[in-house]
Amino acid sequence: MINIPIPLLVLLLGGGVLPLIGLMAERLHVKWLREGWTILIQALALYSVYPLYREVRAAEGRILLKYLPGGAPPLGGCFEIDVLGVYMAGCISLLALLVAIYSTRYMEHEGRLTEFYTLFTLMNAGMVGVAMAGDFFTLFVFWEMMCISSYVLVSFMKHRPGPIEAGFKYFMMSATGSAFLLLSMSLLYGMTGTLNFAYASASLKAVEPTPWLLLLFTTLLIGFGIKSAIVPFHTWLPDAHPEAPGPISAMLSGIVIETGLYALTRVIYLTFPVSIFKPTFAALSVVTMTLANILALLQSDLKRMLAYSSISQIGYMLVGISTGTAYGLMGALLHIFNHSLMKGLAFLCAGSIVHQLGSREISEMRGLGRRMPFTSLSLSIALLGLGGVPTTNGFVSKFILFSSAIGAGMPILAVIGVLNSALSMAYYLRVIITLAARGEASAEEAPAIMVGISLLMALLIVIFGVWPQPVIRYADIASKCLLQGVGRYLSAVMGP
Amino acid sequence: MHPFTSFIVAVFLLLLIGLLCLTTRRNMIRLLIGVEILFNAANLNFIALSIQRAGFIDPLGQMIVLMAIVLDGCVVAVGLVMTLNAYRHYGTLDVRKLRRLRW
């Protein structure tokens, strides 16, 4: 019996078989075989998250511990699945399913599709693995799996120089980040003698800060911060995300950088007392959202503007994480889910526009609202959501984030956040106005599948905007895992 | 002097060399080597810390280093492919020539 989480197993096996399926599809000239297989795998992964959800919710604060036979923790690697891990896996698989369906039409005319779908599936497997890892080494292996797939996917269109250049830059920065992550692992190992999160947490959580502990904190922050594009380390993102193919931009901005943030939050909350990281995160969040919003204002390229907007959204999430309260964390988790829908949709619509119009310049999109009404409508809804307009889900999570900052005694963060939100509306509205204006942009409406997915996601944004209670309730339970649930997280591995 | 102090010093030197290589060199292959040096600094740190307890060599650290070497082999392979592709487009290995995007 292979004792690893089922969604992960599905993705790994499905991704591993995909090259064979692709070979079959080419030899036998069966259309849609690998596309169908990819969608099936993603759907199965999403579906198999549900039994895990039932299992962790069966009792209050239940944690599943899974490891391969003969490799029991603390020496062997393990998966420790709590509500938070299942929440992240759900966000990842939902977006991945939608994007997989979308990319069947978007990537239709490209070559090397077998590689594309294999890497896409393995990237998702990596992210699900990161979400469920119970020790640092398992996390690192899946982290690298996600990173390596995403390097290749960013520079997938290798016949153009832009993706190659963006990919190389992304690669250099992200590989440096991975090296720092490995260094932080070695420091953690030197201090505690283990890499298991539970054991490390037990021996570090109550310790007074020493220089070594601060070094560990810094290397962790650099390692995860590069991937999640926190501001001093963000410079790869505005190149890499726009140059990637449309569906991959949606995945990268929608969930990959959030996975980095999730891993950072998980490790930091497990191993450090709140007082150490609170001021650092608060300062980083202010810098991140302000700088990214100002830079986004200056962009004339739609996808590049959306990429900067992703950085600023990371800043909003950092506000919630820096509060150190369950309410703030709940806001951050809710924003991860909402942002995956909104930014995913925005990048998918931008992809449709690039696909039909052949240009990313906002100025050339005048009058596109009449030519591509459905795509423009969904893009507008996504942008309004990102700006935080009421009745979209972005409003709900931003409201929670900023009010949590006031509750945690940091009203200055809330003020800066609200000001930034207002500033960000300037560039979102500019796009909407350009789309709605009269003009002579000539393009057909995108293919039905792409439009269908966009409209579905736009509908989800509005639904979760007016009826956010189910997600809020779930995010609330998930956020408590990081605070009150730490004791249970430890005893799941170490025994009571 | 504690026996592993020399190792820790070596780790910090490697880190410095790696970072210096990343910031000052302009050749893409050298940048890759810089990343590799950083990875190896971390690996050396693992090995050094796995023998810190007297009379006992912890297998966990050694095992992790073996896996980490495989992983950074994969990373560098991808990096070399990207360097190759960049060379085909630009005809040079100088990163300063990769300026079509705003850095």
Protein described:
- The complex is a heterodimer of chains A (496) and B (103).
- By secondary structure, chain A is an all-alpha fold.
- Chain A has helices at residues 6-28, 33-57, 83-106, 113-132, 136-154, 161-192, 197-204, 211-228, 237-243, 246-271, 274-297, 302-323, 326-357, 368-371, 373-387, 393-407, 411-436, 448-466, 469-483, 486-494; strands spanning 64-66, 79-81.
- In chain A, 77% of the residues lie in helices and 1% in strands.
- Chain B has a single domain, classed as Helix Hairpins.
- The model of chain B has no long low-confidence stretch (mean pLDDT 87).
- Classes of the chains: A mainly alpha (496), B mainly alpha (103).
- Chain A binds chain B through residues 75, 137, 140-141, 144, 147-148, 151-152, 155, 158, 161-162, 164-169, 171-172, 175-176, 178-180, 182-183, 185-187, 189-190, 193-195, 235, 239, 243, and chain B through 15, 18, 22, 28, 31, 35, 38-39, 41-43, 45-46, 49-50, 52-53, 58, 60-61, 64, 67-68, 71-72, 74-75, 78-79, 82-83, 85-86, 89-90, 95, 98, 100-103.
Q: Name the largest protein-protein interface in this structure.
A: A-B, 39 and 41 residues
Main sheet attributes: strand count, strand direction, barrel closure of chain B: none
Give the fraction of residues assigned to helices of chain B: over 70%
Q: Largest sheet of chain A, order of strands side by side?
A: 1-2
Q: Kindly report the oligomeric state of this protein.
A: heterodimer
What number is the mean pLDDT of chain B? 87
